[in-house]
Write a structure and sequence with these properties.
Strand order of the largest sheet: 1-2-3
Shape: elongated
CATH class of the domain at 79-175: Alpha Beta
Number of strands: 12
CATH topology of the domain at 79-175: Glutamyl-tRNA Synthetase, domain 3
CATH architecture of the domain at 79-175: Alpha-Beta Complex
Helix content: 40-55%
CATH superfamily of the domain at 79-175: Glutamyl-tRNA Synthetase, Domain 3
Radius of gyration: 31 Å
Order of helices and strands: EHEHEHEHHEEEEHEHEEHHHEHHHHHHHH
Structural class: alpha/beta
Strand content: 5-15%
Distance between the termini: 70 Å
Length: 444
């Protein structure tokens, strides 16, 4: 059975980059009838917060990305300790005491000599007496996994064959000096013990994957199938790293983005398929294939979400928004007419409030100077509400006869004066929704 996982750290809100990883893993599991695991990477007690755990769940539920089971790494520390002890017994785990400053100096020397900045394994040459002296002076050291210096090769689901020389990679630190287990060790143990068969993540993890493959094999496991998707950039190719905080899913939701719009874009962005609105995860999954994605950086523009959002809203029936329409104060007998008028003229649900305010309170008339007298005369010929579907036609006919205006010179000034807008819905449909006589606001 296919088993995938999404492993966010509860140190902040999920952003669009995280979502891409979550969605790919979800779709792989769902397409194969497998299992999708939500794994909370909360081994850092200082930065992990329960409010972010709750937020992660809320964001995934909003999108419909439901998980089959949830795991907490903070509840599995004994499993990581057992794996660490096994690696020590195998001679694949060693303690090192270099300070960050010392490591930085070593890297600079290597770079100056034209060598890759790889940890030199100096700690492996320490005698027991030297280790004891360092422990007394500096306390506990970090624990590094000793890589076998050989090529690590795998067939990547997106990148194709990947081969990395382990000698070009530093022995990874798996346990910090304060005893905290780091991501690499925890992830390896979890992937093995939870039966994870497929891992999709960003291509900034390619080197991590190489070391994890070797660790899994050292611990007697079989690596999952890995695939590394491209990273997102801004619309001009700029890095998104500094903007991801503003691209949190909850901010997009607050700004009116519909979940189907976000999912439809993320499931196709960077692939050979065109982005098209899909209204269910089943529809999205039908056309999803990892092989269709490329390795080049993928441009993401938040503005692309709004046409998709608008398209979704345009197709909704009143039943889908009835509660929101009622909450605005729209009378039940006007609700259907209100929704029919506004749904083709909104980009997000939030814009409904502005339309109802216009109908309820009237708009500030938009009147050009040369039309001021004409508009005043026309408003004098308009009766008080309620209006009906015939009001606009009857009124404009009467104004035409009285003023001699016709065509655009007749209709456009009246539209602008009634709605305060250059364009919008059919005025014959607008007039029955007007709760007050137009022209009551300044500017008429």
């Amino acid at each position: 059975m296919t088993v995938t996982r999404f492993a966010p750290s509860p140190t902040g809100y999920i952003h669009v980059g995280n979502l891409r990883t979550a969605l790919f893993n979800y779709l792989i599991a769902r397409k194969s009838g497998g299992e999708f695991v939500l794994r909370i990477d909360d081994t850092d007690p200082e930065r992990s917060k329960e409010e972010y755990v709750d937020a992660i769940k809320q964001d995934l539920e909003w999108l419909g990305l439901t998980w089959d089971r949830i795991e907490r790494q903070s509840q599995r520390l004994d499993r990581y300790e057992a794996a660490a002890e096994k690696l020590r017994e195998m001679g694949r785990f060693y303690e090192a005491w270099e300070t960050p400053t010392e490591l930085d100096l070593k890297r600079k020397k290597q770079l100056n000599m034209g060598k890759p900045p790889v940890y030199d394994r100096a700690a492996l040459g320490l005698s027991d007496e030297e280790k004891a002296a360092l422990r007394t002076e500096r306390g506990d050291g970090v624990w590094r996994f000793k890589l076998d210096h050989e090529r690590i090769t795998w067939e990547d689901g997106i990148l194709g064959e990947v081969s990395i020389d382990a000698a070009s990679v530093s022995d990874p630190v798996l346990i910090r000096a304060d005893g905290q287990f780091l991501y690499t060790l925890a992830s390896v143990v979890d992937d093995m013990e939870m039966g994870i068969t497929n891992v999709v993540r960003g291509n900034d993890h390619v080197t991590n994957t190489a070391t994890q493959i070797q660790m899994i094999r050292a611990l007697g496991g079989e690596p999952p199938a890995f695939a590394h998707h491209s990273l997102l950039t801004g619309p001009q190719g700029e890095s998104l790293s500094k903007r991801l905080g503003t691209l949190a899913l909850r901010d997009l939701r607050e700004n009116g983005v519909e979940p189907e719009a976000l999912l439809s874009l993320m499931a196709r962005l960077g692939s050979s398929q065109p982005v098209e609105l899909r209204l269910s995860l089943d529809e999205i999954a039908d056309g999803f294939e990892l092989e269709q994605f490329g390795s080049a950086p993928t441009k993401f523009d938040v503005e692309d979400l709004y046409p998709l959002t608008a398209k979704k809203l345009h197709g909704l029936e009143l039943e889908a928004v009835a509660d929101e329409v009622r909450a605005l104060g729209v009378p039940d007998d006007k609700a259907a007419a209100f929704w029919n008028v506004v749904r083709e003229n909104i980009t997000t649900r939030k814009e409904m409030a502005g339309w109802w305010a216009l109908f309820r309170d009237g708009a500030e008339p938009l009147v050009d100077e040369e039309d001021r007298e004409f508009v005043a005369q026309a408003f004098g010929m308009l009766g008080e509400p309620p209006y009906d579907a015939e009001t606009w036609g009857n009124w404009t006919t009467a104004v035409k006869e009285a003023t001699g205006r016709k065509g655009k010179k007749l209709f456009m000034p009246l539209r602008k004066a009634v709605t305060g807008l250059q364009r919008g819905p059919e005025m014959a449909e607008v007039m029955p929704l007007m709760q007050v006589k137009p022209g009551g606001k300044p500017g008429a």
